[in-house]
Amino acid sequence: MNTTHLTEPNSTKSTHPYLGKRVGALVLAAGFSRRFGASKLLAKFPDNRQVSLLEQTLTNLSTALPSIIVVYRPELREQFLAIGERVQAKNPDTAISFSEFDDAESGMGASLAHCARSITDWTAAIVCLADMPYILPSTYSLLAKTVTSDSIVAPYFNSVRGHPIAFGSAFFNELRTLCGDTGARSILDKHSAKILSLAVDDNGILIDIDTREDLNQRL
């Protein structure tokens, strides 16, 4: 595993807003963007040609959380690390790590498992999709404040469940053994009684970017 730390993992913000909990983000950025036709995470917003999807997602996360781990494919190393450095410069107290994964063809579950193996002393992890740049920082903060070590928290907008999902540390071992392309769905199905539903005023939890049309429609 090749992991690059843009700051040391123990260099974090105060945990006071989360009542002493240490909550970080696992960002899934190892997909192949086949429907988009190019690496969508490097695509720029039509109304802001200076910012890519990945940069906006990481910026929102770094505003809210003290630690971020991004799983990515080796061929994107140079571009992704440059994005991480720009985000780091804006939020120097957030620890950002990039974990390289050379078997992303195995699916989202395998990428998530790889990323989860980098967790050390977190109380909980918020599992994020890198192609969801419209989620508000306040939503990430609310998830972090709500999740506990033995709970799972799912956000809802107008009674529709979205992303990201927060997993307490009790579920980390299961995250680390995932495989295939269904992400953490098996954990959610197995532990449905542990899921807390969190209503948020943020339709960004329902919006991911799969095609160029998805991006253009947000203008």
Overview features:
24% strand; Spore Coat Polysaccharide Biosynthesis Protein SpsA, Chain A; alpha/beta; 11 strands; 9-stranded mixed beta sheet; 219 residues; two-stranded antiparallel ribbon
Explained architecture:
The protein is of the alpha/beta class. The chain has a single domain, classed as Spore Coat Polysaccharide Biosynthesis Protein SpsA, Chain A (Alpha-Beta Complex). The chain is 28% helix and 24% strand. It contains seven helices and eleven strands. It has helices spanning 53-64, 77-90, 108-116, 137-146, 172-176, 185-190, 212-216, and strands at residues 2-5, 23-28, 44-45, 48-52, 67-72, 95-100, 124-129, 152-157, 160-161, 165-168, 195-199. The strands form two sheets. Strands 1, 2, 5, 6, 7, 8, 9, 10 and 11 form a nine-stranded mixed beta sheet that branches. A hairpin with a 2-residue loop joins strand 3 and strand 4 (48-52). The chain is globular. Mean pLDDT is 89; it is low at 9-16.
In whole angstroms, the N-to-C terminal distance is 39 Å
Q: What is the chain-wise order of helices and strands?
A: EEEEHEHEHEHEEEHHEH
Give the CATH H-level superfamily: Spore Coat Polysaccharide Biosynthesis Protein SpsA, Chain A
Total domain units: 1
- Shape call: globular
Proportion of residues in helical segments = 25-40%
Number of helices: 7
Mean pLDDT rating: 89
Low-confidence stretches: 9-16
Backbone CA Rg: 16 Å
Largest sheet: 9 strands, mixed
CATH topology type:
Spore Coat Polysaccharide Biosynthesis Protein SpsA, Chain A
Structural class: alpha/beta
Strand content: 15-25%
Total strands: the figure is 11
In the CATH hierarchy, the architecture is Alpha-Beta Complex
CATH class: Alpha Beta
